[in-house]
Every structure is written in structure tokens, then in C-alpha cells.
Amino acid sequence: MGVVKILTTGGTIAMEEKKGAGALPALTAEDLKSLLPPDIGPLETEEFSNLPSAHMTVDLIFKLSQRVRDLVTADEVIGVVITHGTDVMEETAYLLDLVVDTEKPIVLTGAMRTVSQMGYDGIANLKAAVRVAASDEARNLGALVVMNGEVHAARYVTKTHTQALDTFQSPFWGPLGRVDGDRVVIGKRVKREHIPGQRLAADVPLIKLAVGLDERFLRQAIERRADGAIIEALGGGRVPPWWMPTIKEAIKRGLVVVIASRCPAGRVYDEYGYVGAYRDLKRAGCIFSEGLNGQKARIKLMVALGVTGDKDTIQAIFLQE
Ligand code: ASP
Predict the structure, then answer these.
(1) Which of 39, 193, 312, 318 has the greatest CB tally within 10 Å of its CB?
(2) At how many degrees (to 10) do helices 244-252 and 216-223 cross?
(3) Which atom in ligand 1 lies closest to the alpha carbon of residue 51?
(4) Of 160, 151, 99, 102, residue with least CA distance to 130
């Protein structure tokens, strides 16, 4: 019988309220395991870190992906659960989805309430995550987020609410399945996607648009020779006309510019003929994130730039989504 490996990284699931000091990391990997029912099946734990999302770095999540890559090569490991802060969970999940090439389930989970609060959701989430990691149904789905009884694909899931227990949603697509008691029910499957990334490009800012905003952050990225930039553009992928010269300059100077949408759901698309619309951005040499949100488009561009500098290949990688 195989074992599920639980890798703990921190987040609210491992936090308790320290008198007057607020919630802080406290629970170890063994503490979390000890809260689970004893008959849940063979488990091994490993503490990777005990950090809130806001203290995570790109280097750390890349190291985590390498550790998960190693773990899944062991025959006795049937699946991996990663406990994680919810704030950037979707980014770590998507990185794992892209770079860890395995049929075994990789399941991220966390909590919205600390162990000191009424209705701590950490253990129900961890138990469900272990069930999913051990299940045949969840094989070949890439990295998953399991929270609040639902199974979400890394590619589609996003944190939608600052406090609600059902904060993780896959806007428009919906969850892939549910954990019903001890049963894992998968109703939809996703196409797998893999980039054999061995390193991440370090400097890829995410720049969000709002009405009338100037493009100074993009100019700064050009000046410091960033590797690329994600622009979270308006609607289906549109920028104000005064951004176009700077976007063209960025591309001329070798930055890969990817257009995502600031809308919570939907793809960027070609329709309008005015300055700064999709078609104009395409002519200028921008790449499009398809349906990925800005933060995940950033992870994908960092991985893609780690394997190639060729723009056509990078656009093809984004089209796989
Ligand atoms: N502050 C937490 C974090 O590390 C929030 C959470 O885990 O829910 O993301």
C-alpha cells in the first residue's frame, strides 16, 4: 500500500492566535497529522517551511516544485499534499501543475480560519486533500486545490473572497469534482500541460490597468531590463492609447509582453479596431495569456522564459491553455 506525503509550508492552516500578537505560524507537520483520524491511511510528513503566503518568494516556490518532483519519483508515494497559505496558493499550484510531470495527484490545501478560531476548517480540508491525493480518480489531473469539499484545477482556481470558507472558485469553469465523505467524485477532467522548466526568469512584473493610469511601471521595467511583463489589461485585452509607444519600446528592447485581462473570468479576444485594442497589441508583438489570470500568466511566463527566449514558442505555450 502506498503512502501519501504531506509537505507543510505554512499559512493559516498552521497558525494559532498568540495573545495580543495576532495569528502566527505555530503548528508543525506532525501537529497537523495528529489531528487527522488514525484510520486515514499511511501518511508521511515533511516540513518544508512555516510561512504565510506574503513571506513566500519565487525562489521558495520553485524549490518546493523541485522537492515535489523528487517525491513523486518514489514508487511508494501515491500522491502529495501540500499545506499552504491561501493568499498565493493558486500561484504555487499552477507552478507545480506546469513543471511537475507526473500522473500522481498533487493536492494543495489550507484554511481560512486558524486553529484558535471557532470552525477551524484546516482539518476537514486536510482530510479531504489526503483522500484526493490517495485516489485513482484524481490521477492525471495535474495539481489540484482542495478546499471546502471541492476539487479545483490549478489552472482555473482563484481566491475570490478575503474571508469566506468557499473563497476558492474556478470562475466560469466550476470545480472538477467534490469530496463526498470518503468518496472522491470527479465530474470533469482537464487537459494536462507540461513545461520542462529547470529555472524561472527572475524579473517579470505584473502591471494592472485602471482608468486613466499611466504606464510608468512598464517604463521602469524597461529601464531595469526586466525579462518580461504581464499587463492585466482592460476587458478582453485593451490598453489606453498612450501605453502603445511604451509597449512597442519594451518589445524592441527584448521584453516579452503578455496581455492578460483584469476581469475575473474569460479569455482575451480580438474584436475592436481602435488604438490599444487586442489587434493593435498583436501588431505591436504582444503575446496573449488566453484565459489565464495575471498572477498565473506571470508564473507561466517565468517558466517559459526559463526554457526559451523565442516569442513564437512562448505564444504557442500560452495557446496550450
Ligand atoms: N495569511 C494566510 C496566508 O498565509 C492566509 C491563509 O492561509 O488563509 O496566505
Answers:
(1) 318
(2) 20
(3) 4
(4) 151
Whether 25 is in the pocket of ligand 1, judged by its Cβ within 6 Å, is no
Q: Is 122 in the pocket of ligand 1 (CB under 6 A)?
A: no
Report the DSSP beta bridge partners of residue 83. 8, 109
Answer yes or no: are the C-beta atoms of 144 and 106 closer than 8 Å: yes
pLDDT in tens, 171-190: 999 999 999 999 999 999 99
CB atoms within 10 A of CB 31: 14
Q: What are phi and psi of 297, to 5 degrees?
A: -60, -35
Structural domain ending residue among the three candidates 158, 186, 214: 186
pLDDT above 90 for 256: yes
- The reported pLDDT for the residue numbered 260 is 98
Half-sphere CA count of 302, side-chain side, radius 13 A: 25
- pLDDT mean over 143-148: 98
Q: How many Cα atoms are found within 13 Å in the side-chain-facing hemisphere of 149?
A: 6
Active site residue 313: no
Q: Which domain holds residue 116?
A: 3-186
Same domain, 247 and 156: no
**Of 137, 152, 178, 179, nearest to 90 (Cα)?**
152
**3-state DSSP helix/strand/coil % of the chain, to nearest 5:** 30, 25, 45
Q: Is residue 177 one of the residues assigned to a domain?
A: yes
Helix (H, G, I), strand (E, B) or coil at 211: coil
Query: Nearest to residue 264, comparing CAs of 90, 106, 113?
Result: 90
The grid coordinates of residue 53 equal: 503566503
Nearest CA to ligand 1 atom 1: 52
* Count of structural domains within the chain: 2
Residues 6+ apart with CB under 8 A from 94: 143, 154, 155, 296, 299, 300
CA nearest neighbour of 88 among 267, 320, 301, 294: 294
Q: Is residue 241 part of a domain?
A: yes
- Say if residue 149 is in the same domain as residue 216: no
Residue among 53, 126, 166, 295 whose CB has most ligand 1 atoms within 8 A, to mutate: 53
Cα–Cα distance measured from residue 221 to residue 243, given in angstroms and rounded to the nearest whole number: 14
